[in-house]
Amino acid sequence: MISSSVQQAIFNKRMLICIFTGFSSGLPLFVLYQLVPGWLRSEGVSLTEIGLFSLIGIPYVWKFLWSPLLDRYSLPVLGRRRSWMLCTQVLLLLSIATFGILNPVVDIWTVAYLATAVAFFSASQDIVLDAYRRELLPENELGLGNSIHVQAYRLSGLVPGSLAFILADHISWQAVFMVVAAFMMTGIFLTLAVKEISSDELAPKTLHQAVTLPFKDLINREGVKSAALILIFLFLYKLGDSMATALQTPFFIDLGFSKTEIGVVAKTASLIAMTVGLAIGGLVMIKLSINKALWLFGFVQIISILGFAALAEIGHNTYALAVAMGFEYLGVGLGTAAFTAFIARATNPAFAATQFALFTALTALPRTFANATTGVIVEQVGWTNFYFLCTGLAIPGMLMLFIVAPWNSSKKSEAIS
After folding, report:
1. Distance between CA atoms of 62 and 379, rounded to whole angstroms?
2. Are 334 and 300 a contacting pair, CB within 8 Å?
3. CB atoms inside a 10 Å sphere around CB 380
4. Which of 25, 27, 47 is nearest to 38 (CA)?
5. What Rg value do the Cα atoms of the chain yield, rounded?
6. Model confidence band, residue 1 (pLDDT cutoffs 50, 70, 90)
7. Cβ proximity of 247 and 50 under 8 Å
8. CA dist 168 to 39, 162, 171, 172, 343, Å?
9. Which residue did the predictor score with more confidence, 405 or 98?
10. Could you tell me the end-to-end alpha-carbon distance of the chain, in angstroms, rounded to an integer?
11. How many CA atoms lie within 13 A of 152 on its CB side?
12. SS (H, E, C) 325-336
């Protein structure tokens, strides 16, 4: 039996909103890191060029530079958070649809410019969605709310990573991108349906305050040394699995899987894994501390990377693909859920936009700069050794847990910190 307190924590409007924020946040990212690479590879673009496309993610790294602007100013309608949410979501819908009219072989630079614009709009949407979610959730719901947000974030990947490839075997790429872009209406409906939470009285009074106060607050709360260790941990914890999933779709194509196989197997395995992950992640985040969740899910995350190494050795086998994809969605999804909850706990709701943007920007660093070399590495060492390398790169982040998130700390002490 599920206790009434657990039922109240799970079944409320705030958790429903977290589903929609996760889906809207994840969709454009998976367009850039799954659909676009698969599209380019199927059109004959080289792995080296596709790997360099990871550099289009630079806006995710530098988004903290313009997050104070979104904290300080608002558009004329809908309020400080919702106005920017609607603006970025409309721009994402239009720009994702535009991919379909381009020829990636002839217009590769135009594709790169458009992808950079999508990354900028997506990173800006993340700034306001993260801030809105941090203001929405009370402290005791941070773990569960962020777990649900991340699972919905992963769920959105089925649209560009599964549905799109199934459709691509039957309709034109132009139509595929228009269908995928239409799913951004989910975020637009959310923005129009929810209420504004932040008050204009709480907004920074000047741009100078919007820039300086979030950093002063972090240092005053944590101290210089602890703050620096947290920032290093944020960079390292997701390094291995970020690199491992950077060329996921080209990897499947190189193994000989058709676009339909990728789509169907990914859909089935991922849906099962995410259903299990949502149940496990939600209950664990309620019953255990965020620190313990980081440890448990971190180990699962590392094992899931090794699943790709095994698939590289097995080759074209749909059952092996299903297991690898299912474990990847389960392991990486759970690890990201705990990680996002840790980030939310480290932020001050008064400075949520800028602090959340800074922290999540650090997690995007490996996905952007390290991933730019993945194509070169694979072509030099092969897929199996590449995934062993990714496994090794995941270990330093786990070792950092001894310092920033020790296993034996209580939930009460974590909340106080």
Report:
1. 29
2. yes
3. 10
4. 47
5. 20
6. very low
7. yes
8. 9, 10, 5, 6, 37
9. 98
10. 32
11. 20
12. HHHHHHHHHHHH
Proportion of the chain above pLDDT 70, given as a percent:
85
Burial bucket for residue 276 (CB in 10 Å: 0-12, 13-18, 19+): middle
pLDDT digits (tens, 9 = 90+) for 49-91: 676 666 777 777 788 788 888 877 778 787 888 889 999 999 9
Average pLDDT, the chain: 80
**DSSP notation for 373-387:** GHHHHHHHH-HHHHH
Which residue in this structure is represented by tokens 């693909």? Answer: 321
**Could you identify the residue written with the tokens 């709360």?**
221
Q: How far apart are CA 1 and CA 47, in angstroms?
A: 51
Query: Which regions of 251-388 does DSSP assign to beta strands (E)?
Result: none
- Give the C-alpha separation, 70 to 302, whole Å: 36
From 307, 318, 316, 305, select the one nearest 269 (Cα to Cα): 318
Half-sphere exposure of 133 (CA within 13 A, CB side): 35
List of E strands, 133-231: none
Residue 50 CA to its chain's centroid (Å): 20
What is the C-alpha separation between 69 and 47, in angstroms, rounded? 37
Please state the pTM of the whole predicted model. 0.71
How far is the C-alpha of 113 from the C-alpha of 119, rounded, in Å? 10
Tell me the C-alpha distance between 43 and 108, whole Å. 11
**Alpha carbon distance 338, 293 (integer Å):** 6
Contact 207, 72 (CB under 8 A): yes
Contact yes or no for 24/189 (Cβ under 8 A) = no
Please name the helix (run of DSSP H) or strand (run of DSSP E) that holds residue 71, with its range, or none: helix 67-72
H-assigned helices in 237-316? 239-244, 248-254, 259-287, 290-314
Residues 6 or more apart in contact with residue 200 via CB below 8 angstroms: 74, 79, 80
